[in-house]
Amino acid sequence: MTTTVHPTGTDSPRPSSGRRSPLSAIAHLRELPVLLALVALILVTWLINPLFLAPQGVKDILLNATIVIILAAGQAIVIITRNVDLSVGSILGLVAFGTGSLFVAVPGIPIIVVILAGMLFGAVLGAINGLLVTLAKVPALVITLGTLYIFRGLNNAWAGGTQFFADDRPQEFGNLSVDTVLGFPLITLIAIVVVVIVAVFMSGTRSGRDLYAIGSDPDAARVFGVPVTRRVLFAFVTNGVLAGLAGVLYTSRFNSVGATTGTGLELDVVAAAVVGGVAIFGGSGSVIGAALGALLLTTITGALTAVRVDKFWQQAIVGLLILAAIVIDRIAAVRTARRLRVSESRDV
């Protein structure tokens, strides 16, 4: 599952003497196992319970996956740089409560203004994480674990016992999670657009490829002139922007937001990215894979509920998937490194 990332910032192995056929290229896609597992899961569940693929059932799966898809896309960017952000659930909670506050404090405020304000709020919180990680030189796991509790504490102090409900927001804002286009809820379409934009940025721009180079070998990336500190800060800010967007859309999707909104969500997000093929040690993976991982985990929950499997087993299966993804990724990394050593010895 892991490819070797060189300081040029590419997420591909060294070119070989021959070109891969289209079928071979598809077979080597990191996202393919996740996609196949998703299709198999849907088919098996549908055979057991045909109502699983009823229009409302499909809509519910997409709606439940939307928020995690956006968060997983942002998390993938951070993990690719060999970091992690455990505070995304708390950022979402702060932005969600802030969104409800805006609608109450400024009646008639345009929805686009609220969305932009939420993204800006998320960017500020993401920048705090990024600055602490890059300037203090402390592992992101430690920093974001701390900011997880700090941001959650701020939300508790701000919200207290206050909650904002569906009646506190404009009807058209709530309709983002109700109206559909070709069967896709509007907020799901927003998530798809976000994933496509981020995927194009990561694979089609120098800055995006730099993030892969940093995750593969930060020291080598510096030698080759990659501005590591600036790029890592950018990754955290972008993740904050997407968490802010997710917080706004969360307010549209659910009936209430309060002090506990987003609690525990960060674990689902990291799990989605890892299961989707984003290497936990950085340097490889894609936001598309992370999005598929989010959809797979959400579908697993819906599928097991549809066949009446106990919730404990739902959590156990997700845990097994995470362990399997990490083990397979490490095995693939070792095999790739071994092939490179053999190839280099032959060249010598």
UniProtKB/TrEMBL annotation:
GO terms for molecular function: transmembrane transporter activity. It comes from the Bacteria. Pfam families: BPD_transp_2 (PF02653). InterPro entries: ABC_transp_permease (IPR001851). It is a multi-pass membrane protein. The chain crosses the membrane at residues 32-54, 61-81, 101-124, 131-151, 182-202, 232-251, 257-280, 287-306, 312-332. GO terms for cellular component: plasma membrane. It is found in: Cell membrane. Keywords: Cell inner membrane, Cell membrane, Membrane, Transmembrane, Transmembrane helix, Transport. Part of the ABC transporter complex LsrABCD involved in autoinducer 2 (AI-2) import. Probably responsible for the translocation of the substrate across the membrane. The complex is composed of two ATP-binding proteins (LsrA), two transmembrane proteins (LsrC and LsrD) and a solute-binding protein (LsrB). This is Autoinducer 2 import system permease protein LsrC.
